[in-house]
Design a protein that fits this description.
The chain is mainly α. It is built from four helices and two strands; from the N terminus they run ββαααα. It has helices spanning 12-20, 50-54, 57-88, 94-107; strands at residues 4-5, 8-9. The protein is flat.
Amino acid sequence: MFRFKRGNLMKPTDLMEQNENRHARLCRAHSKRSGKLCERWAIKGQSVCATHGGKAPQALAKAQVVIERADMKIRGLAIPAVDAIERLLQAESEAVILAAAKDILDRGGLKAAHQIEVDTEITVIRPW
């Protein structure tokens, strides 16, 4: 795929150099006038923004399928992940056992307090 860049023919390597440092969730569409990549965020489950076709009904349907497939994949990995953490509870290193126990408690909603309440009084004596 070659695009014109101000009268010069772009090489595929030029396109790769542009895309190396881009965030994966940015729109991948190019401007017709300048040939530059769009700077808007892509819609969830898609590679383009709403302006470049992300709001089309067929694109939204395909994105929903992609999101559901990713959700099923994550749910399928949950059981092996729990098994791996349970095996870590049997490790020889106390640090590993402690980290695994903390992880299990955090995921179970039993996190440590984030705030500490201190009840004190401060008396300021002004010399003037």
